Structure formats: C-alpha cells, structure tokens
Prior knowledge:
Belongs to the CLPTM1 family. The chain is of the alpha+beta class.
Amino acid sequence: MSPPAAAAVAAAGGGGGQPQRQQQQGGFGQSITGIIRIAVFWYFASKFFSPKKPVDPSNLISNLFQKGEPLDMWLYLSEHQRFNDFGNEASLVWHETNIPYATWGPESTRTLSLDYHPSDTLKNNGSLYAHVFFARSGYPPDPNDPEYQPQAAFGRTHPVVKYLPKSRSDKRKSLLGNSKDGEVFEPEPQVADDTEADSKDEGPVEWISYWKPNITINLVEDFTRYAHNAVPPNIAPYLNIDPSQGNYYPTISFNEFWLLRDKLIAINETVTVLPLNLEVGPISMMKWQLFMQIDQSFQIHRSYGSMVEGEADELKRVFLEGNPYLLVITMVVSLLHSVFDFLAFKNDIQFWNKNKSMEGLSAKSVVVSFLCQLIVFLYLLDNETSWMILASSGIGCCIEFWKIGKAMHIEVDRTGKIPMLRFRDRDSYASNKTKEYDDIAMKYLSYVLFLLVAGFSIYSLMYERHKSWYSWVLSSLTSCVYMFGFIMMCPQLFINYKLKSVAHLPWRQMTYKFLNTIIDDLFAFVIKMPTLHRLSVFRDDLIFLIYLYQRWVYPVDKKRINEFGFGGEDEQTPSNTDITTAKEDEKKTN
Length: 590
C-alpha cells in the first residue's frame, strides 16, 4: 500500500539487535548535552546575532490582537482537510469563551477529555483533522455569517492521525526447524520507526494510521514588530499574515513535543472508542522557539547517524519522568564522562606508544581484546547499524590491532602462496616469568570461557531465532563478549598476584576508566538499558576494585620498569659506571 499523502517521507536508517542497543546506550548520556547545546546556541545566535538594519516604521507589521484580549475558541473534527461546515453541530467537539490572550492564569488554560467513536472510514486507514478557530469574543468564525470580520477571526488545521510504516515481518527463524513449517514470526504490535519505510527488504511498504490521544493548542505570545520583508526564517513559516492590512494574526502552535511514540494508538477495525485529551493555553516566544530548535537538532543528529529513531523519545522521557535534581546531575556527569573517556583514550595511546617492555603485562589479553572488538564490529555491520557507531567501532578495532603490534612482533610470512601474518613474543615478555604466568592464567580461564560460550551458543540455537547461521555465530559471540568479557581481564590480575607488583600497569588510563565506570553505574540506574549491559557495568567495578586492592597491598618496586620504560632509580643522578654501562648497552642494541 502506498503511503497516504499526509505521511512524511521517512529518513534512512538501520535496525540492530541487543548488543547494538548496548553500544548506543554508551553514547546516550553524551547526546543529552550535545542536543541541548545545539538548540540553545541556535536560538541565541538567531536572537542576538541576526543582522539588524534600519527599518522604516511604516514598513513594520504587528500583531492584530492585544495582550489580554478575550477570545472564543471552536474545535471541529472532520475527515476533510478543508473545513467550512460550521453549521454541523456533530463536528463541533469543543467550545470555549473568554480566553484571555497571552496571559498566564487559571482562566487562560482550558482542558477537556472525551471519547471519540471512529467511523468505518477512519478504521480503514482514513484521515481525521482538527480544525481550531479563534475569534474576538462576540464574533463568529464562519465567513458566511453576516457579523463575520476577517481581522477578528483566525484558525489552523492539524492532523489527528499519524501514518507510520508497519513493522515488517521478523525474518528470523529457528535454525533447527523447531517452528511449525518454518513459519515466519510476526512481531508484537508496536509503533514502527519512520526509518523502516526505507528498509532494503523487497516488497511494498504497508502504512498504518495511529491516533494522537493528546492535542495541545498553544497561542504564542508574540507582539514583535517585524519588518515586512525581514521576518526571521524560523518564524516566517508559522506567521499568518492578513492580506488586507499586512499585519499578522496570533500564531497557533499544536505542541507535540511531549507526545511520545509509545503513546500513539493503532487504529483498526476492532477499535470502537479512542480517548482524546484537549488542552488550550499560552506559550512564551522563547519556549516555543526552544521546542522547535530541539526538534530540529534531533533531526540533524538523525541525519548524521549520531541518533537513532526512538532515542529522542527516551531523552524526553528522562525529562518527563525523572527527578529535576537527578537530571542536572546526569547532565554534569555525562559531560565528565566525555572528558574522562578522552583522557583514558589519550593515556592509553600514550602508554602503548612509549612502552618499551612487556614485563608484567599480559600480551594474550591484548590479542583477545582485539578479537572481542572485531566480533562486536562484525555484529554491528551485520545488523545495519548507523555509520557513526560503525566508524567508532571500526576505529576501536584498528587501535586494538595497533596495540598488538606494540605488544608483539608482527611479521609477514611470504613462504607460502598466500602471505600470512605471524606473531612472535617480544624478548621482554618471553624472557621472564610474565609469559609463564600469562599462559597459566589463560589456560585455565579459557576452559571456563569455552564452556560458557558453548553452553550459551547451544541455548541460543535451541530457543532463539536467527536470520542465518552466520548471524547465530555473531550474535552468540557478541553476547558472550558482553556477559563473559570480564574473564579476559583476569590474566592480568593473576600476573600481578604472582609478581607481587602492579608498577607495570598504566594507572593513569585505568584511573580514568574507573571514573567512567562509576559514571556508567549512575546511568545504569537512570537510563533504561538491557540487563546484560547493566551487568557488564557492575562486573567492571569488581575488576577495578581488585586492581585497587592489589595496588594497596603490593609495595612499589622502584627497580621495576614503569609504563614509559624507565625505573624509579633512573631519575637519580647516574654515576660514571652507569653511563659507561648504558653506552655499551646502546651499542649492543644498535
């Protein structure tokens, strides 16, 4: 079925599985300050830095209505986009009188809740429009009425029904053939994302009508005198100009900023009654523009791939349902999370770039960390994730592979028909007890890990559905990375225990990561996220606490080489014998 004329063209996007959502939750807190920052900057930039030219006072337009002027309101519901049937009492669902314009008080805000009985046309993907009219008290809104005055009445039309693409059939299936006749499972009824309209799946897109249960009508408090040909571009589309005098009517805004996707009600043949909550009231110019700028920032983030469909609703839900003090704390710590994340990344690169010895460091953990990052990247690629998440994961893979080159010798073997990469341990790693302890720790931990991975993969194969065998392998491995990834951090703990020292660790980077973990703990309680991701946050806490305990228990060994390849005694003034020995070592190295 072709999309109705009233439906908007959907933006391109991609879906993802559970680990994909877990990756996106990491940047959710960071997007809060970014979105608000763009919206506020855009508003004040257009407010204060717009070019101001001398304007002839006779060329200025102003509001036709005065502050506090009483208005009457009529709200009609009709299946036609154009409305002139003012005599039809059945279409009139709400009428209010003496509403003071642009004033705040109990008499300025009116509400009404009612039940609407949809017609057969509306049940079969039909349309419905709300036609709201305002007029000075005592004047009619009907142009055919003898007492009608064009400058005394104004109105606007707004659709009450929203069209969204139907969620496509779930193409996943049981790979063991447990489902009946290989049937394709239908997803549970839910509000689909606009991006699903541009899915790469073949076949026409079916559109479904959704009912908006809340209609909020705001009259914007705007008494600005604009130049006739210099109305701000963000206001011009909403300004209703009187063609005879050139002045403008009060701006009517249908505020849907707080109307979330999950509040929409699907309309079908089984629906008999639909709830409708109506509200009319004033809104300040600043608040109205701020809502518009935030919505535009959401669209900009979605177009650049930094925000997926539905994430804007989750952000709004935090503001609606969260504690105001907790929201302020969340915004502050999200900014700190970005700073600590950058500092941890910088110190990690700095550590491995200047590291001259692998003594006391687990080389196998570096290799396994790269494999885990590669698995997550392939899973995101298989689920058509946004390019920004893919780019972030891809860069992480490259960095992890670069760290392998710093931890081990990488050589290209050209003896065979196909060149192969060979990895060889560095002398500082293989010539002491570090390699021995690393092998012991990885040996026993690998037994536990393989049993967990095999058990979870069999469970996933028997009781879960997948698109293909390749998807099953990736999803199983990715889930194991999130659930059992902390096991890969344990070999370093074992090496620290056997060497009775932690001086070889990059403590600056680990400190920043530990601070980020504390911030993640806060987000785990504030923001809705998958259970596996929430458990992964707390498992990191346990590992870092053990690291801190080891740092407290084991004394500092100044003779041990630190993260930059120097020992504590190197900072002392060297003797002539030390200088001679250093020169001989340098010659041997060269």
